[in-house]
Amino acid sequence: MKSKVLLPILFIVIFAVSRIPGLMPTNFSVAYALMFCAGVYFRGALAWWLPFAVIIGTDIGLNFYYQHQGYTVWDVPDLANLFFNYLAYAVLIGLGRRFKPQSSLTTLIGGGILGAILFYLITNTAAWLFNPYHNPEYTKTIAGWIIALTKGTGGFPSTWEFFRNTLFSGALFTALFAAAEKAVAAESPADKTAGAREPETDAAPEEAQA
User: Fold this and answer.
1) Is residue 203 part of a domain?
2) Measured on CA atoms in the order 22, 23, 26, 32, is the torsion positive or negative?
3) Non-local CB neighbours of 133 within 8 Å, separated by 6+ positions
4) Does any domain span residue 26?
5) Cβ pair 44, 90 in contact under 8 A
6) Domain total for the chain?
7) Which residue in 91, 101, 172, 205 has its CB near the most CB atoms, within 10 A?
8) Which residue spans within the chain are E strands per DSSP?
9) pLDDT tens digits, one per residue of 153-182
10) Which comes out higher in pLDDT, residue 207 or 50?
11) Which tens digits make up the pLDDT trace of 117-153?
């Protein structure tokens, strides 16, 4: 099967399975790598609508699940916080568009780590700003923002531990996705570019000097 069909299926299935509650540690997610690699490898609008369709669909399912567990998930602060998650995912896809499918594995892993850092900064800033769980430490001051990025709220693991999981999962799954793409693309000469986004070329030749 050509990589243009296999890769989206592989990425999406792994991501959907990883969202089963309790399967992964907190903030240890395939989502960061999925969004970054979608930007790198998927063509055109597919890079945007496919990962977002899956993540929104699974988010709706998870919200109903957590609502059944007694959590409040549909309030305005919760939805605003979720919106910033989607904004961070869009940033990851945009970041991936700046990398080439032919980039080295090391370069792509570095991009995945950078994407995880950006996601962490955006989403934790949103958690501090909207404070959907009414954490008393998240005062609307610089000190409160720094607490949101480092210590977090009392009674829970520090946000640094979440940051560690974010970085590690971003690097790990980016490496797995990139390695899978390179393996599939190497199956035959015709498949080497079948699933990859076509490299960008200069839009116009240089103007002749007068």
Assistant:
1) no
2) negative
3) 153
4) yes
5) no
6) 1
7) 101
8) none
9) 877 778 888 899 999 999 999 999 999 888
10) 50
11) 999 999 999 889 888 878 899 999 999 999 999 988 8
CA dist., res. 85 & res. 138, Å (int): 18
Residues 125-130: contacts with CB under 8 Å, at least 24 apart:
125/84, 125/149, 126/80, 126/81, 126/84, 126/85, 127/81, 130/77, 130/80, 130/81, 130/84
| Nearest Cα to Cα of residue 103 among 118, 114, 91, 116 | 114
State the helix-helix crossing angle for 31-41 and 105-130, rounded to 10 degrees. Answer: 130
Alpha carbons within 13 A on the beta-carbon side of 205: 3
Q: Is residue 197 part of a domain?
A: no
Q: Are 132 and 77 in contact (CB under 8 A)?
A: yes
- Provide the residue range defining the domain that includes 127: 3-190
The whole-number pLDDT of residue 194 equals 47
Q: Which residue has the tokens 């404070």?
A: 131
* pTM over 0.70, yes/no: yes
> Which contiguous run of DSSP H or E holds residue 145?
helix 142-150
Amino acid at 80: A
**Token pair 């991936």 in the structure block, residue:** 96
Quick check: 171 and 114 in contact, CB under 8 A? Answer: no
Class of residue 209 by CB neighbours under 10 A (exposed 0-12, middle 13-18, buried 19+): exposed
CB contact at 8 A, 83 and 129: no
